[in-house]
Amino acid sequence: MQPPLSQDALKAQVAQAALAYVRPDTILGVGTGSTVNKFIDALAASGIRLRGAVSSSDATTARLQAAGIAVLPADQVQALEWYIDGADEIDGQGCMIKGGGAALTREKIVADLAAKFLCIADASKRVQVLGTFPLPVEVIPMASANIIRRFARLGGQASVRLNPQGHPLVTDNGQHIVDVRGLRITAPLALEDEVSAWPGVVTVGIFAHHRASVCLLGAPHGVQTLRFD
Ligand SMILES: O=C(CO)[C@H](O)[C@H](O)COP(=O)(O)O
What we know:
Layout: H1 7-18, E1 27-30, H2 34-46, E2 52-55, H3 58-66, E3 80-85, E4 89-90, E5 96-97, H4 104-113, E6 114-122, E7 135-139, H5 144-153, E8 157-160, E9 176-181, H6 188-196, E10 201-204, E11 206-207, E12 214-219, E13 222-227
Parallel strand pairs: 1-2, 1-3, 3-6, 6-12
Antiparallel strand pairs: 4-5, 5-11, 7-9, 7-10, 8-9, 12-13
Ribulose-5-phosphate binds at residues 31-35, 85-88, 98-104, 107.
Catalytic activity: aldehydo-D-ribose 5-phosphate = D-ribulose 5-phosphate
Function: Catalyzes the reversible conversion of ribose-5-phosphate to ribulose 5-phosphate.
GO biological process, one term: D-ribose metabolic process
């Protein structure tokens, strides 16, 4: 009997499958994370030539450039057909929690440029209700204590994310991340709207307004395609 595929192998599988959505000579929005890294590697090895990519983080920019893919500034691109990114959780409507890699703000900005969002994830990310994964929120540091209190009133336990040195993690945008545990997100659109309106919130990691159009889910029996439009 074959040993079960590792999470890493499942990510590699969906990264490879995502190549079918890449049209040569177009501009692609590219997310952030270990699954996307595998996608960038697969794209580089595929020989598919892009006009360029719009990147969602400094880490992705570096990886794209190392792969010989031109990175175009987001403010010089009017529209994209596809944005390709991973997720920390995805529900049955294609709504997602994102931001485990602290790149949620630029991810949402690039996703907003795109007509369609292709989510690539291993099967462990598929959930019935969002919220087991701590919800990341990018915040302006002076607002974090108040935002933590606001989440407590909603029943969530929030804390500022620390870097390996024990200091608040600083995002590519110079801000902090608050991670919220204990929320059962049954109405993702409403919660995205509510938290987005709080003073000092830069971006909440609920992607309901920018939910996935298609999700390629890596499972032991192969890649499953979920369509949400
Ligand atoms: O939102 C993200 C980064 O901010 C990532 O898409 C998310 O954390 C999934 O990452 P991975 O592909 O490493 O599992």
